[in-house]
Design a protein that fits this description.
Arc Repressor Mutant, subunit A; alpha+beta
């Protein structure tokens, strides 16, 4: 997604588009990989002195809830990336070396048969971490 598409997606869902949100959209559109909230804050704080980390994080969560950004949990913390397209439920293969991300259209949830009856699943995340063909050499 380019920054205009990100802004349009947020606007279509009723989010007020501020200059800070335009800057967030541009940052994510211009970044191939994943961004941690701290990296986003450090970048945004240069342009908007006095901006709080909480404001940045709240906007990242809102953009994630709107399916503009995808959230991933790495060993060193949460990171965000522009949604990879398609709004159907999907998962990812993520290279630990170059962070290349490959959408995985298959969902393994239907195969899980040992979920206790007293537990109701309402959502799940599933990422597979490994090495892409270029990095496994």
């Amino acid at each position: 997604m380019n920054s205009d598409e990100i802004i349009r997606a947020m606007s279509d869902q009723g989010l007020r588009i501020t200059e800070q949100r335009r800057s967030l959209a541009k940052l994510f559109a211009d970044t191939e990989g994943y961004l941690s909230p701290k990296v986003v804050y450090d970048d945004m704080e240069k342009e908007y002195p006095g901006l709080s980390f909480d404001t940045v994080y709240r906007n990242l969560r809102i953009m994630h809830e709107m399916d503009v950004l995808e959230q991933f949990v790495f060993e060193d913390g949460i990171r965000f990336k522009v949604h990879c397209g398609g709004h159907e439920h999907h998962h990812h293969l993520i290279c630990l070396s170059c962070e290349k991300t490959i959408p995985l259209e298959y969902c393994p949830m239907p195969l899980l048969v040992d979920i206790p009856e007293q537990f109701q699943v309402v959502r799940h995340k599933f990422e597979i971490f490994g090495y892409c063909k270029d990095c496994k050499q």
